[in-house]
Amino acid sequence: MPLRRERRCLRLPLAASTVAAGFPSPADDYIDVGIDLNEALIRHPSSTFFLRVSGDSMIEAGIQHGDLLVVDRSLEPRPGLIVVAVLDGAFTLKRLVRHHGRLRLEAANSAYPPLELHQCGDVQIWGVAIHVIHALTRHG
Amino acid sequence: MADVLALIDANNFYASCEQAFEPALIGRPVVVLSNNDGCVVSRSSEARQLGIGMGKPYFQIAGQLASHGVVVRSSNYALYGDMSQRLMSSLEPFVAELEIYSIDEAFARLPRPRHGDLSSWAAELRSRIRHNLGLPIAIGLASSKVLAKLANRIAKGDRRHAGVFDLGREANPDPWLELTPVEEIWGVGRQLGRWCRLRGIANARQLRDMASGELRAKAGVVGLRLQLELQGVSCLPLEQGPSAKRETCVSRSFSRAITSETELRQAVATYVVRAAEKLRRQQQCSGRLTVFARTSPFSPGFYSQAASTALAVASNDTAALLQAALPLVALIYRPHKRFAKAGVLLQELQSQDQLQHHLLAPLPEPEQQRRAALMQSIDGLNRRYGRGTVQWAACGLAPGWMMRREQLSRAATTRLNDLPTAWAR
């Protein structure tokens, strides 16, 4: 079992010049190593996981059905953050909100009622959603 | 103050990984089966409490498991391997040195604070790993590796210790050593254990205090080191950093016995494909290849055979390795033998970089680059869409001998198509 962490990333060369045919561009020496989306989006790689969104209850927060959700489990859930909660044995996406001094889980879609935390039996906040990746084309 | 050695490991690692990504399993009894769905290799604490034994063959207890509503899973190595890496890299900032000892345990060295008490350090580490990864861990602390391992066993054995036991803080370690049967000491094999019992040495305290001359005569320097470690003198250094691998092996038991040469060839081809993938990931090439196969050691007429060949030029090209491996199958195959297991061993591994521009290269350089690009695309497709998306014809299609993993969970952390669902409802 290999125990070394394998780093895989897509390197997109970032060149700072337009194409000049005929002679080598003086900017060639300044070509950077590229943008690593993992590095840019993920601060804590060992505690960050990806989940797939199903449903439309978070639509007003810009999270749509089929989106890729980036979740960091090491962050403390604070009011205002979108969190993955374990509700009835399933990962459920909600916004943690303080309402009249009490914490509750709200959807971002008026069709879904809020859940008062003190009324639910056993709710565990599994992680904090830090990014959502939404494909704009079918193959995105 | 002197350094402390810690043995940190995950409790019921495989079962805990299953529970971490399937919240419906939290609080429920879960068992994980070994390769081929053979026997129980991991039990959640709930399954333990039901009295389900470790190592029990699945077919014997399937009824018992079903009647208790126990969730059964096949080993999901993609998930466990990824979680293991996450666990190890999460431990690193907490210690001065880390030796990854197995998929779910690590030795560590850290300085003991002036006041001597590491309980808040241990509590913080345990809650961090539980919070960030969903994994429960146990920590044993002592002044040597052997004692740290022993302390870890005590930490796990008794709920009152809450997963942490620091033997270095005990004024008198003897009662704890007496609690540890001699066979349970790290480094005591079956043979040494039996030898000890015959001499009336039943526990760690007795082994620590026995005449060292006698132990030396039996177990040599290794035995003396073990005794010193039990006395709290650290003799076994931490081994750091995975050393470059010298060989890599892929072998599996078949779900049913294989008797035809075609099937044996397909199995060997499948393992060559896997091994070549591993090599390319490690950026290594192999200079020697061995193929082996055996029948079951529990049935009469046991047969085991291996054949080996050197490669003209070290390679990690699947086609080149298949070309070397498949003729060996004819050498080890025997008709009417019921093969239960086969494997491929790649040896004389060297770094890929050392090989470029080789004078004896069998292919011109542009051709070599085309081959390397082809291998890369195949690996990429298989990673992205799942193993076996692009297959080598030599492996056969949908073979019947493939390892049984009927209750496999998803590769929840490593494959885009297998991600857990976050319900927005």
Topology, element by element:
The complex is a heterodimer of chains A (140) and B (425).
Chain A: H1 37-41, E1 48-54, E2 68-72, E3 82-87, E4 90-99, E5 102-106, E6 115-116, E7 124-133
Antiparallel strand pairs in A: 1-2, 2-7, 3-4, 3-7, 4-5, 5-6
Chain B: E1 3-10, H1 13-21, E2 30-33, E3 40-43, H2 45-49, H3 58-67, E4 71-74, H4 77-91, E5 97-102, E6 105-111, H5 119-133, E7 137-142, H6 145-157, E8 164-166, H7 174-178, H8 190-198, H9 204-209, H10 212-230, E9 248-258, H11 261-281, E10 284-295, E11 304-315, H12 318-332, E12 339-351, H13 365-385, E13 421-423
Parallel strand pairs in B: 2-4, 7-8
Antiparallel strand pairs in B: 1-6, 1-7, 2-3, 5-6, 9-12, 10-11, 10-12
- Mean pLDDT value of chain A: 83
Proper CATH architecture of the domain at 45-133 in chain A: Ribbon
**Helix proportion range of chain B:** 25-40%
Give the strand tally of chain B.
Answer: 13
Spatial strand arrangement across the major sheet of chain A: 1-2-7-3-4-5-6
> What's the helix-strand series of chain B?
EHEEHHEHEEHEHEHHHHEHEEHEHE
**What's the Cα radius of gyration of chain A?**
21 Å
Main β-sheet of chain B: number of strands, strand sense, barrel status? Answer: 5 strands, mixed
Question: Quick one: CATH superfamily of the domain at 45-133 in chain A?
Answer: Umud Fragment, subunit A
- What are the secondary-structure elements of chain A, in order, as H or E? HEEEEEEE
Average pLDDT across residues of chain B?
A: 88
The CATH first-level class of the largest domain in chain B comes to: Alpha Beta
Q: Classify the beta-strand content of chain B into a percent band.
A: 15-25%
Number of domains of chain B: 3
Which outline of chain A best applies? elongated
Work out the helix count of chain A.
Answer: 1
